[in-house]
Automatic annotation (TrEMBL):
<dbReference type="InterPro" id="IPR005886">
    <property type="entry name" value="UDP_G4E"/>
</dbReference>
<dbReference type="GO" id="GO:0033499">
    <property type="term" value="P:galactose catabolic process via UDP-galactose, Leloir pathway"/>
</dbReference>
<keyword id="KW-0119">Carbohydrate metabolism</keyword>
<feature type="domain" description="NAD-dependent epimerase/dehydratase">
    <location>
        <begin position="3"/>
        <end position="249"/>
    </location>
</feature>
<dbReference type="InterPro" id="IPR001509">
    <property type="entry name" value="Epimerase_deHydtase"/>
</dbReference>
<keyword id="KW-0413">Isomerase</keyword>
<comment type="similarity">
    <text>Belongs to the NAD(P)-dependent epimerase/dehydratase family.</text>
</comment>
<dbReference type="InterPro" id="IPR036291">
    <property type="entry name" value="NAD(P)-bd_dom_sf"/>
</dbReference>
<protein>
    <recommendedName>
        <fullName>UDP-glucose 4-epimerase</fullName>
        <ecNumber>5.1.3.2</ecNumber>
    </recommendedName>
</protein>
<dbReference type="Pfam" id="PF01370">
    <property type="entry name" value="Epimerase"/>
</dbReference>
<comment type="pathway">
    <text>Carbohydrate metabolism; galactose metabolism.</text>
</comment>
<dbReference type="GO" id="GO:0003978">
    <property type="term" value="F:UDP-glucose 4-epimerase activity"/>
</dbReference>
<keyword id="KW-0520">NAD</keyword>
Length: 324
């Protein structure tokens, strides 16, 4: 028996694959490589290069690898871009999830861990986001993730799908030198690319109602995130009680200014960030509680900010090193 990780060749998915392997659990990967990398998948892991919009491919994969559950990470993850590409976002995140669930139902696979997003909350009017905080997504991306959660809920009612959805904000760091965040939109890659190119990183506004004037957000280490995905899968396998949603939150958050200071210290590159204008709609602070996930899913902030930055920088440097 094996667990299928959709999007397992991506930054987050590849860490989840390794977390499964570390627990001695067989895993298989399906990824279309639209943003993933084939070399992120270990040689020992079966890799199916394909699209989860292809239901026949999924059913064949379930049968061939005796799949017992799915960790669904694949999706179009760029909230800002989703505003310009709503139909593409819904196809990749809603239609594809429905196709996956249909293939699971047809194949008798009834366990899913869904990699959701804190984007479902939009701009919450509370200092600490909990699972019960009202959902008010502000982009097609956030909306598509919330619809994904609804699809799981409805399949649970209709056919007995056992499931949970994990919501989180900003994922950073690296659990292995060969794995890195290659997103063109995320903060750490943007900052590192600027430093490597000799440019000065920028901050979007420094007049927010926070201690240093820059936005405060949840930043969590990707390896910690991966551990909780596996813990959720184990809980489903064991038939233990599990909530429909969990926040993987830090409980306190860090500011963009703190990140810049830490990046300078870790890399040894001195710089003073350029202060640009605010981005429309950016709230002062968004931080989530991880209390329920800590209780049920082995959730813990095991890495300091310095370790998050240091591991991410090491993987970025490794990617730039000449291969002999």
């Amino acid at each position: 028996m094996a667990w299928l990780v959709t999007g397992g060749a991506g930054y987050i998915g590849s860490h989840i694959v390794r977390a499964f392997l570390a627990e001695g659990i067989d895993v298989v990967v399906v990824d279309d490589l639209s943003s993933g990398h084939a070399d992120f998948v270990p040689d020992s892991v079966p890799f199916v290069h394909g699209d989860i919009l292809d239901g026949d491919l999924l059913m064949h994969t379930f049968a061939e690898h005796d799949v017992t559950g799915v960790v669904h990470v694949a999706g179009f993850k760029y909230a800002g871009v989703s505003v310009q590409r709503p139909l593409h976002t819904y196809e990749q995140n809603v239609t594809a999830t429905a196709t996956l669930l249909a293939a699971m139902q047809e194949s008798g696979v009834n366990r899913m861990v869904f990699s959701s997003s804190a984007a479902v909350y939009g701009t919450p009017h509370t200092d600490l986001v909990t699972e019960d905080t009202p959902k008010s997504p502000e982009s097609p991306y956030g909306e598509s993730k919330l619809i994904g959660e609804w699809l799981l809920r409805d399949q649970g009612i209709a056919v007995g799908l056992t499931h949970t959805s994990l919501r989180y904000f900003n994922v950073v760091g690296s659990g292995a030198l060969e794995l890195r965040d290659t997103s063109p939109h995320n903060l750490f890659p943007l900052v590192f690319d600027a430093l490597i190119d000799g440019r000065t990183p920028s901050i979007n506004g420094n007049d927010y109602a926070t201690p240093d004037g820059t936005c405060v957000r949840d930043y969590i280490h990707v390896a910690d995130l991966a551990v909780s995905h596996v813990a959720a899968a184990r809980r489903l396998d064991a038939g233990e009680p599990i909530l429909p949603v969990y926040n993987l939150g830090s409980g306190d958050g860090v500011s963009v200014g703190q990140i810049m200071t830490t990046v300078s210290a870790v890399t040894g590159i001195e710089f003073t960030p350029v202060i640009g204008p605010r981005r429309p709609g950016d709230p002062d602070r968004i931080v989530a509680s991880g209390e329920l996930a800590a209780r049920d899913l082995d959730w813990e902030m095991r890495h300091s900010l310095e370790e998050m930055v240091g591991s991410a920088w090491a993987s970025r440097q490794a990617a730039s090193a000449p291969h002999i």
